[in-house]
Amino acid sequence: MPDRAVLAQGTVEKIGEEDTVITFRSDGEILADACSAADHPTAVDTLLRRFLKANGGVLDDLDEIAAFGHRVVHGGEVSESMVVDESVLDIVRRAHRFAPLHNPPNLAGLEAALRAAPGKPQVAVFDTAFHAHMPPEAYLYALPLSLYEEHQVRVYGFHGTSFRYVSRRAADFLGIPPDKVNLITIHLGNGCSMAAVRNGRSVDTSMGMTPLQGLVMGTRSGDIDPSLFLFLGEWLDLTPEEVYDLFNRQSGLLGLSGLSNDVRELQAAARDGNERAALALRVFSYRVRKYIGAYFAVLGRVDGIIFTAGIGENSSWIRAMACDGLDGLGVALDPARNESTDDSERSISAAGSAVPVLVIPTDEARQIAVETYNILKEDIAQ
Ligand code: ADP
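# adenosine-5'-diphosphate complex -> structure
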């Protein structure tokens, strides 16, 4: 896609709550207003109206939009972005059971856009798709195989849109063809996951059938002994739903620290001597380090380690702890480069580090736009 500029962007947060807020930016100006959006379809309508010049946006008419790109969290075993028709809506619906919090709002957004702009092409970009080429030894759980064959129980992986974007940018940065590059990509945001990328494709990833597996996250436990599900239910007299909630919403950095799920707050508290905050950050970083080691073993040759998303882009503390002691693998950070608050794509490794370590700011919205354009470029008027 030609490197088209972002004209405007907007988000609606706290949908369905009292204090719903719409944030809109164009011409570098950021405006945040209260708005009302009881549900996701209303939020899409509100946002689309905001793009009109009449409301301070950039379009005379919604008809100027050539196509819509949608992020869809779970697409089952789908391996690419798809132009939305009834069969694609069915794919999204069938994956609801794997991502009950994410896929229904994704579907509502798709349907709202289809209603608001009838006849305009809509493209679904699946977060799982980047991982669809993993080999069976990476995506199978060691459970009875019938659970995969009959119930599609397997590792799917997430954050694929982000991994695809940063892998491509990292390949350019390193001067390696995108289909030849081997990377360990580390997305640390509210959700956290990593991927081992061989020849530009994901060959292993840390999240599983759902986004609960793998790294420690803000409120999610990541990897734990599955027996805990039964034992905690018995010991604490909790229903399965309550245990599930404990693992998803009361664990991770929040559960360990008892303070916050936000790395900024935990760093400040740890600097003030809060031991539990420091412990939570150590457990978080140790898990990342362990997966870095695992992905060295998976890949054999690593051309770069890539940090991205809110924590990965901004926390030099976490990056330093995650890479600490990896000298044996040829990984050494340059402390001054790591501390730099420059927000561009950059190397943070020491001159003598055999493996470059990069910070690449992710841009999932741009990746969705690129994929939407690529799939439709024959049809979109230039
Ligand atoms: P999402 O997964 O929702 O897109 P982000 O990628 O924006 O989330 O990451 C959000 C997290 O990034 C916050 O919870 C916070 O812990 C962390 N974060 C954001 N800015 C900083 C910062 N300057 N220093 C450390 N952590 C930060």
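# post-check
The pocket of adenosine-5'-diphosphate is lined by residues 189-191, 218, 262-264, 309-311, 314-315 (CB under 6 Å).
Residues 177-362 form a domain with the Nucleotidyltransferase; domain 5 fold (CATH 3.30.420.40).
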